[in-house]
Specification:
Order of helices and strands: HHHHHHHHHHH
Strand content: under 5%
Distance between the termini: 46 Å
Largest sheet: none
Length: 210
Amino acid sequence: MRVLKRRATRDPQAMQAIARKYTDGIEVKRDPVLAALWRRKAAERRHVPAMIDYSLVLMRGEGVRQHRMEGYRWRERAVGAALKSTRVVKPVAALMSRPDAFCYWQAAEFDTGATFADLNPGECLPADEPRAPFTAAAETGSPWVLYSLAIMHAAGLGGPRDPVQATQLCERAAAALAVQRAIHYGDGAGAPPVRPLACDTASLAAKAPP
């Protein structure tokens, strides 16, 4: 933690890492107020993940006074910052700029969470949802995008059913989730348990919208 705080004088990624430690109570006592403070510091330096997190903090009133409009403003800033950054981030930013984006933003929080297996991206997927935006965004390696696309292939949303592709995408999502958790929790100390994703076609298709 001392090393992170030294880095945090100039590094927004370190600021975001400190915020997550205070959020999850890793190495420090859980403190939503300090978590929100560090997220804001990182967000003010245009660190896109921190901007996303801070928008949700404001919308939910976690460690700060609830202010939904300010949360939406930070969401718009995050989308703008992402669109101006690397090519690989743009497809995810495009998803997040949609009118139903809050559903996706909530899903994104589960990338390092303990309940990723309980996430139901089908709630975010209309039956006529096109695959193209998800296919483009999957190149970023985001677990929730890969998982959503796996469900689309399993259930035949936006195109033909493809059980093999569905399983492969789900397995990529599980691998990407493991990497993100390793980055977030290091040696695993303090990491909450996580149930493995069910990547069989029936389980994936069951998460699709009716």
